[in-house]
Amino acid sequence: MSFVGWLQIAALCLAVLAVIKPLGLYMARVFSGERTILSPVLMPAEKALYRLAGVDDQREQGWLAYALAMLAFSIASFVVLYAILRLQAVLPLNPQGFGDVAPDLAFNTAVSFLTNTNWQNYAGETTMSQFSQMAGLTVQNFLSAATGIAIAMAVTRAFMRSRAKTLGNFWVDLTRATLYVLLPLSIVVALVFVAMGLPQTLTSSVTATTLEGGSQVIALGPVASQEAIKQIGTNGGGFFNVNAAHPFENPSALSNLLNIFAMLSVSAALVYSFGQMVGERRQGWAFVATIAILLIAGVGVIYWAEAHGNPILTALGIDPSAGNMEGKEVRFGQSASALYAAVTTGLSDGGVNAMHGSLTGLGGLVPMFLIQLGEVLPGGVGSGLYGLIVFAILAVFVAGLMVGRTPEFLGKKIDGREMKFAMLAVLILPVAILGFTAVSAMLPAAVASIGTPGPHGLSEILYAYSSAAGNNGSAFGGLSGNTPWYNTTLAIAMLLGRFAYVIPVLAIAGSIAAKVRAPASSGTFPTHGPLFVGLLIGVILILGGLQFFPALALGPIVEHFAMLAGQSF
After folding, report:
1. What are the sequence ranges of the domains in the chain?
2. Separation of alpha carbons 497 and 490, rounded Å
3. Which of 106, 291, 336, 516 could staple 101 via S-S, CB 3.0–4.6 A?
4. CA–CA separation, 289 vs 244, rounded Å?
């Protein structure tokens, strides 16, 4: 650990903090239907899209209609992407001559990009044509992220309104999220990436002469455009197999910091947008403080664990001064690798610049645990916000039990109906993660896919289903996931993690919107101060700890103690 390393981490955090308020205010204006700096250019296009689609932008939807519209759009998106992958060989822009994607892999990939998970059981540069990368995967990067933002806005409006029957219009929110937020930011970031050296071409490859005089075929493609929305939309799906460890996706320490900054900005700013839209900015900052405390703690633990190195490697004669560099890029080092690992799993991004399976036991535990907490630190664009609101509802319920008062959040009473839906939502992750992990650990065909036996092998399986159900998409490494069993079950876990979570959340929003928003009284528990922040952190950690600690104890925890004892598996 070094001063320069901590300085890099601090500079990145300050940069994100600086953009939270202006970007949050901008998005609050966009989703409130107010005029913005981009309105003169984009409003005609927005209105034209409504006319073409037959959408009445003045007509709002109740929670059920909103949910059905979201599901219908998601089904259509899945069908289109699945068809592109299955018909890849006959579609244009296939200079590599790739064949059709196998049915089980196409199913897994279509579900993955539909749910904003971007789990990849394939190597992009040897599997996907330029058309599939652009018209299939990159398009879904925009649409899945916009869907998450739309749902977050519906939940936000529930706390803004009194005795309301509607939460907005899904088609309007989807259009505005794409047109006013994701697209402009992606264009800017993509151009910066191109200036940094990321390829942006329809050429499939170039042949280079090596230093030994041989030749090497180097894959190319429209990398910068996919990389931009990959990070801004917290998607994480890489153009290349090794994701952000590839020099064409992430060529330098500066591009690495821009990747992390792009990942965090929209998700963190949406939390501020929530406070602005509900008329309680302090609530937004309380959420930001919660996110920052837990995320920075995660970064610190990973950095500490990796900087202290691996005593097993030290015993083999490897210089321990640089810490555990196995699976990491020397151009990033320990601090930037630790920061990337924590951010990508605190978000639902899934992009990686180092092999998580090569982290120490404790270093690998943290990314896995951050996913299992529900992807709320700050989570995916939109999904992190509504996940955090669910935890806030649970926190005020716990506070109400302590003092014997009806729990209340932002002037809305929290009753049994909301609590039932909240518990249904938070139980989805442990059911999907632990259920599929338990079955896979017992099936010989599933166990055969692990790369390392013992605790690390269990970690590979546990991380895979955590990543899928948490809609994260990063991989621990070592698990051969491109099999019918993993392609199918991981896809089911992704669907549960996205839609089985979203429906109860929208039901909560519908119930909350119908209630009267009462003004705060002397007996109201304030939800914007340090006490609430501490309570919210406690609820997040306790839920994660109680549900997943036994499984973690059998995987990364025992592996870390074995490493300290000089034992390997």
Report:
1. 31-270, 283-564
2. 10
3. 106
4. 28
pLDDT score, position 524: 76
CA dist., res. 424 & res. 503, Å (int): 10
Instruction: Give the separation between CA 349 and CA 334, rounded to whole angstroms.
Output: 20
Exposure of 224 by Cβ count < 10 A (0-12 exposed, 13-18 middle, 19+ buried)?
buried
Give the residue from 156, 160, 167, 184 showing the smallest Cα distance to 70.
167
At 282-341, the pLDDT tens digits run 999 999 999 999 999 999 999 999 998 888 888 888 878 888 888 888 889 899 999 999
Terminal-to-terminal C-alpha distance of the chain: 27
Rounded Cα gap, residues 259 and 253, in angstroms: 10
Whole-angstrom CA distances from 253 to 64, 98, 156, 205, 260 are 46, 33, 37, 25, 11
Both tokens of 439, joined, read 């079955």
Residues 6+ apart with CB under 8 A from 435: none
Tokens (6 digits) for 326: 């196995």
Rg (CA), the chain: 23
CA distance 375 to 200: 31
pLDDT computed for residue 302 by the predictor: 94
Structure tokens at 234: 């917290």
Phi, psi of 154, rounded to the nearest 5 degrees: -65, -45
Pair 122, 105: CB distance under 8 Å: yes
Residues of the chain with pLDDT under 70: 522, 568-569
Please classify residue 401 by burial: count the beta carbons closer than 10 Å to its beta carbon, then call 0-12 exposed, 13-18 middle and 19+ buried.
exposed
CA angle 236, 270, 69 (to 5 degrees): 75
Per-residue model confidence as pLDDT tens digits over 346-384: 988 889 999 998 888 899 999 999 999 888 888 889 999
